[in-house]
Amino acid sequence: MELILNDFGHYLGVKGQDFIIYENKEKVREIPFYKVSQIVLGSGNCVSTNALFWASVYGIDVVVVGKTGRPLSMMLPLFTDKRVKTRLKQYEAYQNHKGSIIAKAILKARVSSQISILEKYGLNSEKLNVNLERIRVENKTIDEVITRLTLAEAKCTKQYFKQYFTLFPKCLKPKRREKYKAQSPLNNLLNLGYEILKGEVYKGVMNAHLDPYIGYLHSIQFAKPSLFCDIQELFRALIEDFLITYHQNLEPENFEQKEKRVFLKPNEKLKLILEVNHLFKKKVPYKRRNYSKTTTIRTIIKEEPIKLAQFLRENKIYEPIMSEMMYS
């Protein structure tokens, strides 16, 4: 389980074999070391060095997050990266056919989720039916494959958002999808939602012992966590579908303008963050080996990088999660 301290004024200490959470010097929760898989700390909270010591002994990751849930830093026990084979295979895959297979599989899953969103709301998905099977990966370098996949992805994404934006009122929707320094409120809502999602993907990638900077669909660049971007593609539709419903509760006065850019006001931003985290707790039909037939979305996000790592290490078929099962 995750031990999360994201409310201002909490203190994490230790008593015996348990972590103790205090609020205003009063004990509010007690959790045995062995039940904790990760500690998540938001700003305004305190943690004792004794708690950090036992987290290291028990192999518990400690993540410091920003206000959106975006990981800012992570303390990992020294033996966390003992699974050297995983990263070696990850690097090798960039040089052989496996990397290209991963890139193509992720894009197919992303386009499939876009088609499902449009069809769910009665929109036309025909222009997204790009024949990705025509893009061959055999005897091609991953750079060549990425170039062709990127062109196909850009075409699908442009057509997708052109229709997706029609589901929103004029006061929210932009002319086009913008990421960096977006001005429109809807683009900034999407960017915020993706940022929250990124935090979940980050924890999953690190838990799977993968290098976050070696991805396959997204190019490798300085300081660009390409693998986060790859895995995130599989779950973006969750945020997009969520906002179609969530925006109906928003009014113009919920936003504020900073120069030419329009954002949610701080209180409304916090509400959205809490709602997205509530979404991640939702249980959906998803059969895990030796587990129940339903699983939380948060667990599915966490286990997707583990599935990818298994594919890298072993001769297994990589079938990315089809996120439409989580919002259909």
In words, what does this structure look like?
By secondary structure, the protein is α/β, with parallel strands linked by helices. It has 2 domains: 2-81, Ribosomal Protein L15, Chain: K, domain 2, CATH 3.100.10.20; 84-326, Up-down Bundle (Four Helix Bundle (Hemerythrin (Met), subunit A)), CATH 1.20.120.920. 43% of the residues lie in helices and 16% in strands. It has helices spanning 49-57, 84-95, 97-120, 142-164, 185-207, 226-233, 236-246, 266-280, 297-313, and strands at residues 2-5, 10-15, 18-23, 26-32, 38-41, 46-47, 61-65, 71-75, 255-258, 261-264, 283-285, 294-296. A 4-stranded mixed sheet has the order 1-5-7-8, sandwiched between helices. A 4-stranded mixed sheet has the order 4-3-2-6. A hairpin with a 2-residue loop joins strand 3 (18-23) and strand 4 (26-32). The longest helix is centred in the N-terminal third of the chain and has 24 residues, at 97-120. 32% of the residues are buried. The model has no long low-confidence stretch (mean pLDDT 85).
